[in-house]
Design goal:
single chain; alpha/beta; eight-stranded mixed sheet; 8 strands; binds guanosine-5'-triphosphate; binds magnesium ion
């Protein structure tokens, strides 16, 4: 998410690194690049301008604290202003305590309304509510079927009528049906258009007047940038929105929509969609988003996610072992298990400071889960002693482990070799400073080392020839590093 703006913004802010004293001129000069970074991310022009003006004003007025470097101070101000830009947010859906509440979803075609209706229903159901879906999109017969399928999947009732009816009537009948079914939250999935158009607005206004929803939420496709912001403004003028749900933030949206929409419309983003599946809806937290945008890593979300699934002791132990340069098969297995519990590896990396930059190099990791299960199987068939000292695993032990885990002995071999090269690098890393560690990780990532089960450079007999990183790739990496160095010098 937002890799582009993160790298350009952190790059821009590095202008302030090492600058001894902040003067008005140096602040203005440095913030030019910040403004540029925002514009490149498709942030609304006025919003970017105002943002930088505010930061300039703040920074000039502020005495540099002794405990903070100029860069830290500017970073602090930018962080706070990013939060102000996107917040505050009230995540409450203002549902009635008794009786029935109605949530109306609206938005352009393909923005994710129907999917989001399902996601909300799922979330409300988890909170103990009784959701009820209404197919008020009569534009396309397929839309009705789509909602019915989602309802069936979630075991949430759906009210639908023939496609030639009137959407207002459908909504009214839907609310009646929901009452009869004992539901307490009705979600209206309305029709979309390719562009904001008067006919659609009239239809939505009619639903609003006749059905009186407690909440009108605008579903906004983050991938469409400033178009999304402009349509949010038009919908807000017609309907008085209560909140925005920003979808497709899992894609490669540049961030402009998420950063500008609150400022432009005054309507906060309440939730965000981070995937096509129905469990991919999360409350939108400006402070977490700000920290993520600044490449600081979203530690809070990670911590929360981790809390749920981590065996904290084993995590601490693995970390300690890593710090001491002792990376055993046990810590390897723990790491793999945690990766599996947390879901996709890629989605974890973005929470770790400095790691978001290397996401692009990782490629497709979709097969990783299956491999982790195999690796887990193999390591589980080893004795505690073998896990601690894998170098003692001889041929007969390898055969036994292979039998125990239902794989070929060659696969055990490969795992041990993979592990061997990873451990060597990890041990090497333990003595390095942070910068070199990050570089090393980047090298490992680009060589496919984080793809569990994938063959690593110089490992594995199963392949005819060991395949070190190819010369071109090496050259490219080196060139990139030099380019970056030069860039930093210039600033
Ligand atoms: N990656 C990703 N895809 C999403 C997200 N939300 C929705 N989608 C996808 O976007 C496409 C359109 O979603 P729909 O829910 O059908 O959109 P809609 O607004 O109901 O579209 P219309 O009914 O045609 O107006 C589908 O392929 C969804 O799977 C999201 O948060 N992330
Ligand atoms: Mg739809």
């Amino acid at each position: 998410m937002f890799e582009g703006i993160t790298s350009s913004l952190t790059g821009a802010l590095s202008f302030f690194r090492g600058s001894g004293k902040l003067t008005e001129a140096s602040i203005r000069e440095g913030l030019k690049a910040v403004r540029q970074a925002l514009l490149e991310a498709d942030v609304n022009y006025d919003v970017a301008q105002e943002f930088v003006d505010k930061i300039t004003e703040e920074a000039i007025g502020q005495k540099v604290l002794e405990s903070l470097s100029p860069q830290e101070m500017i970073l602090g101000i930018v962080y706070q202003e990013l939060i102000n830009l996107m917040g505050p947010v009230d995540h409450e859906l203002k549902l009635r305590r008794d009786g029935i509440s109605i949530i109306m979803l609206c938005g352009l075609q393909g923005s994710g309304k129907t999917t989001t209706a399902g996601k909300l229903a799922r979330m409300l159901k988890e909170q103990g509510k009784k959701p009820f879906l209404v197919a008020a999109d009569l534009q396309r017969p397929a839309a009705i079927e789509q909602l019915k399928t989602i309802g069936a999947q979630l075991e949430v009732p759906v009210h639908a009528e023939a496609p030639n009816g009137n959407p207002v009537t459908v909504c009214q009948n839907g609310v009646k049906a929901a009452k009869a079914a004992g539901a307490n939250v009705v979600i209206l999935d309305t029709a979309g258009r390719l562009h904001v158009d008067p006919e659609l607005m009239e239809e939505l206004r009619n639903i609003d007047r006749k059905v009186e929803p407690q909440q009108i939420l605008f579903v906004c496709d983050a991938m469409t940038g400033q178009d999304a912001v402009n349509s949010a403004r038009a919908f807000n003028e017609a309907l008085e929105l209560d909140g925005i749900i920003m979808t497709k933030l899992d894609g490669d949206a540049r961030g402009g929509a998420a950063l500008s929409v609150k400022q432009v419309t005054g309507v906060p983003i309440k939730f965000m969609g981070v995937g096509e599946q129905l469990d991919k809806l999360e409350p939108f937290h400006p402070e977490r988003m700000a920290s993520r945008i600044l490449g600081g890593g979203d530690m809070q979300t990670l911590a929360e996610k981790a809390q749920r699934v981590f065996d904290q002791d084993s995590m601490a132990k693995a970390q300690e072992e890593l710090m001491r340069g002792k990376f055993t098969l046990n810590s390897f297995l723990d790491a793999m298990k945690q990766i599996k519990k947390l879901g996709n590896f890629k989605s974890i990396l973005q929470y770790i400071p400095g790691m978001s930059g290397m996401l692009g190099q990782l490629g497709d990791l979709s097969g990783a889960d299956k491999d982790i299960t195999r690796i887990e199987g193999i390591i589980s068939s080893m004795t505690a002693e073998e896990r601690q000292n894998p170098e003692n695993i001889d041929i007969s032990r390898r055969r036994r482990i292979a039998r125990g885990s239902g794989v070929e002995a060659a696969e055990v071999n490969r795992l041990l070799k993979d592990f061997g090269s990873m451990a060597k690098m990890m041990q090497g890393m333990a003595g390095m400073d942070k910068m070199s560690q990050a570089k090393q990780m980047q090298m490992m990532a680009s060589s496919g080392m984080f793809q569990p089960g994938a063959e690593m450079p110089g490992a594995g007999k199963t392949r005819s020839k060991p395949k070190p990183m190819d010369a071109d790739k090496k050259k490219k990496l080196k060139k990139e590093a030099e380019k970056q160095k030069k860039k930093n010098r210039k600033r």
